[in-house]
TrEMBL record:
Keyword Transmembrane in annotation: yes
Keywords in alphabetical order: Membrane, Transmembrane, Transmembrane helix
Protein name per its UniProtKB record: DUF2818 family protein
Entries under InterPro entries matching the protein: UCP019883
Source species: Duganella violaceipulchra
Transmembrane segments: 6-26, 38-55, 67-87
Domain of life the protein comes from: Bacteria
A Pfam family the protein falls into: DUF2818
Length: 93
């Protein structure tokens, strides 16, 4: 896999995982919907970063990551989840 294909695949995966928690897939919810959305969002972020680390390991040498990487990627993940937030909390009312 080319590095460009890996980047596009990674960003598409982030876009999908960031918006999945805001889709209503089940009608039964235990907690408050905002907590369900947040837990799903954190789980999606963890899956995305795991996949990103696997893609990085497959493409070559792993680089040490400091707190800046985690801050930027969480901000990017929050940014790409905006369509799901708008759909769930603004358009479904």
């Amino acid at each position: 896999m080319d590095i460009t294909q890996a980047v596009v695949l990674n960003l598409a995966f982030a876009l999908i995982l960031a918006n999945v928690p805001f889709l209503r897939l089940a009608t039964v919810r235990r907690w408050h919907p905002a907590w369900n959305d947040f837990i799903g969002w954190v789980a999606g972020y963890a899956l995305w970063m795991s996949a990103s680390l696997m893609l990085e390991a497959a493409s070559g040498k792993m680089v040490n990551k400091s707190w800046e990487v985690w801050a930027i990627t969480s901000a990017l993940f929050a940014l790409v989840s905006f369509p799901g937030i708008v759909w769930r909390h603004l358009l479904q009312k």
